[in-house]
């Protein structure tokens, strides 16, 4: 979903807002976030985007995605699956699309201007449900060319929400850190800080197009996305503390939950797709695993609750 600073020169006390989106403090009433159990893999999948590995074929898939705003059924099928081991979180997404298109090739381009798949990862306590909306969450967007955009968000405006020993790009006074107030929803958790200068270490992604990219004369079946996120790089989520007001605490922040998770732990993880072309007057253009009741992906409390199972796929 459209979000991000217009350029690295934007910093200070400015609050980023998405042009052309009217912000609301109200949401439609939608179904409660679904629950899902991610199974363990014994052999990591080879990332080629095809999702043909036996583990993906046996993994339980999400229900067909619904409209982000209304929760209504959608014109085309989209499904996701999640797997894990002690080293990585694995996410796969199957996208039905008769005409697969993508134009953006530069990393951290405004990928939402293409058809894209988006992944949001939040720990157990990043849902804006605690005092001041505790914690952090990660966003990844990818188009059918495999071009990615990513940003890390922390609730609140602490100068060093990930601790004073965190790298400079995770300090709120970094040129690519900016206050963020959501997209279409005035969240009661308040402001977040977006860290657009941070890249998740060790991230691996792959895309496969089942058809011919950017050829309107052909009818495509769609495309698929495969993502591997190292747990070691997600430890930052467990160290975020939005309640730590400036000045920063003198000691490193202790992790608040286990990374990698223990069997039985539950995190909040959302997968969605955004389409340039809408499919009818009631189509918001955003389809997701869990409906949000408003034009805004940044509601971790509505992300599906993903429990990490001990059973192997």
TrEMBL record:
Report any one BP term from Gene Ontology. carbohydrate catabolic process
CDD domains in alphabetical order = CBM9_like_3 (cd09620)
Cross-referenced InterPro entries, in alphabetical order? Carb-bd_dom_fam9 (IPR010502)
GO molecular function per UniProt: carbohydrate binding; hydrolase activity, hydrolyzing O-glycosyl compounds
Any idea where the Carbohydrate-binding domain is? 48-122
Pfam families membership: CBM9_1 (PF06452)
Parts forming coiled coils: none
Q: Per its record, how is this protein called by name? A: Polyhydroxyalkanoate depolymerase
């Amino acid at each position: 979903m459209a979000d991000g600073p217009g350029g690295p020169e934007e910093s200070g006390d400015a609050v980023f807002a998405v042009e052309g989106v009217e912000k609301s403090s109200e949401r439609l009433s939608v179904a409660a976030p679904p629950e899902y159990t991610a199974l363990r893999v014994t052999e990591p999948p080879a990332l080629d985007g095809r999702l043909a590995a036996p583990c993906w074929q046996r993994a339980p898939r999400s229900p067909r995605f619904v409209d982000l705003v209304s929760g209504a059924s959608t014109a085309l099928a989209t499904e996701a699956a999640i797997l894990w081991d002690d080293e990585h979180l694995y996410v796969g997404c199957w996208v039905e699309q008769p005409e697969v298109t993508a134009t953006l090739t530069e990393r951290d381009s405004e990928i939402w201007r293409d058809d894209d798949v988006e992944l949001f990862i939040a720990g157990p306590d990043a849902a804006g449900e605690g005092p001041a909306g505790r914690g952090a969450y990660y966003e990844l967007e990818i188009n059918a060319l495999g071009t990615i955009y990513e940003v890390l968000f922390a609730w609140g405006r602490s100068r060093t929400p990930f601790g004073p020993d965190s790298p400079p790009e995770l300090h709120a006074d970094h040129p690519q850190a900016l206050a963020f107030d959501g997209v279409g929803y005035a969240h009661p958790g308040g402001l977040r800080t977006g860290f657009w200068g941070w890249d998740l270490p060790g991230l691996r992604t792959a895309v496969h197009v089942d058809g011919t990219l950017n050829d309107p004369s052909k009818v495509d079946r769609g495309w698929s996305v495969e993502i591997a996120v190292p747990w070691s790089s997600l430890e930052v989520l467990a160290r975020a503390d939005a309640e730590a007001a400036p000045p920063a605490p003198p000691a490193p922040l202790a992790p608040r939950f286990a990374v990698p998770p223990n069997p039985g732990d539950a995190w909040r993880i959302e997968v969605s797709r955004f389409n340039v072309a809408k499919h009818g007057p009631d189509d918001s253009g955003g389809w997701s695993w869990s409906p949000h009741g408003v034009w805004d992906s940044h509601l971790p409390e509505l992300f599906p609750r993903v429990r990490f199972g001990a059973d192997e796929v």
